[in-house]
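Usage

Read records sequentially. Each one opens with the input sequence:
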Amino acid sequence: MAKCLLINPVIRHEDAPRHVPYGLAMLASIAIKAGHQIQIYDANAWRLGDDALEQVLLADDWDVVATGGITTTYGHAKRICELARRRAPRARVVVGGGLLTAMPRDIMRLIPEIDVGVVGEAFQTFPDILDQIDHGDCDVAHIPGVIYRDAAGALVLTPPRQLLHELDSLPAPAYELFPLEEVYFPNSQVLFSEEGMLARRRLDINASYGCSLVCKFCFHLGLSGDLRHVQGEDGVTDVKFDSPGQYGRDIRWHSPRYVVDLVKSLQRRYDLDFIGFLDENLMTMDQYSGRTWMREICELWIAEGLQPTCIRDDVPHDEHCRGVHWSGTSHATLCNPEILRLMRHAGCSHLVYGYESFSKQVMKRLGKGATPETNMRSFFWTLEAGIRPIPNQIIGFPSEDFDSLRDCMRAWEKLGIVVKPFFATPYPGSAWYEVYRDRILEQYKGDLDRFLRDLGDATKVTAIISENFNAVELYGLRELMIQGDYERIAEYEREWRQSRPGKDAIECADAREMKHRRAMSRLAVIG
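and closes with the structure output:
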């Protein structure tokens, strides 16, 4: 049996650790079921620094040290690999998740300590790697969905791993290996609804994988059928994702029975009062299932006794409420009043909406399929159902201009809200990273490592992809938007127009995208 140490890297230093890493918890459960010995060090939960990490690496004679996460964990994941090579030299270092999947050749080059990278979904690939190592053979050339170094040190990308469609065959995540009582339950509160703010024992689950949308700012993890192996003009095979004009989708979801049984077992074991659905877009699954999936989840939730008593008895929510409230994601064009009312009746407290913008020209170029009108409609539908709509917005899009900023401000007035927008960020794995890669690297003097270390949760400006505004302008304009200061925005616009050449941001953005589309069409798709 392979002896494996799984390490959860630090993410979001500025916030408390709030979410058990679902992917690592699932991989741990799968590996244990396959007979391997698994230990977890949750560096994000404990945040004890390098000394503690080194002690963990020295604590046993590990066969495998594995880590992974999204791209924003890059800096700490790199440090984990460096220490693993130094303190556990016999162990094979394995890295996966969106961090590696988004740019496998780049990450293998930037982190030379990695022995094997998992490209795409790891449910089948990771246990295959452990099995191979358990048999004393480190040759992974026959395993699909990996990248490794051959005897000469050259990077080899194996054929893509097919996605798992029998999702209900997956075991329950190994939550018990994480510090629930010490760290995660004390940080259960989510400040988006009254029920979320009063949550004392929350866990998160994934009920589905993928999303039907083709948003150009969204970074992909190889879970939606959007990962392709392509051969460049230099003959080198690499991974590419959705790009303008080239999209692929493979949408998958657990059965409602699996979802509710999982929640019910967790509620019995941990006395949960809140569940967060981590799904990219719950409404996608409802649409693809013929509008049956979410209804069946809600009906089973109630039938199995998970409905919160405050809703059942029609009384205000307080600390005496029993049952499990929940939250998730929605989409402006895919929800409807009927399903929202049923979701509320089953215990849904809030839904996150990626509204992004209220500018028609910006939304037309996002690939989201929504309009300012559908955004507003879904907001009021959700409120009327008794669910809190949580509107996410972004500024700094390629075609962002003064009019698009004012469109958002006017929409806030109609909705009776104020939103502090995120900044448009070209995460690796997104269409905009591919379109703007050269410009991104120019801003970091060609240093990809520096760019990856700078990436965060889009609350600060990193690489600029706006054709109109620089970082200082975006910070200042966002503050004026929040203050509702139309007058100063107009004043600055007059100064800006006097000092800038007469380029059209919309035309520039569209031209960049068309140039990228032509370049992509010359690549040979081989998997």
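Summary fields computed downstream for this record:
- The longest strand covers residues 348-356.
- The chain has a mean pLDDT of 92.
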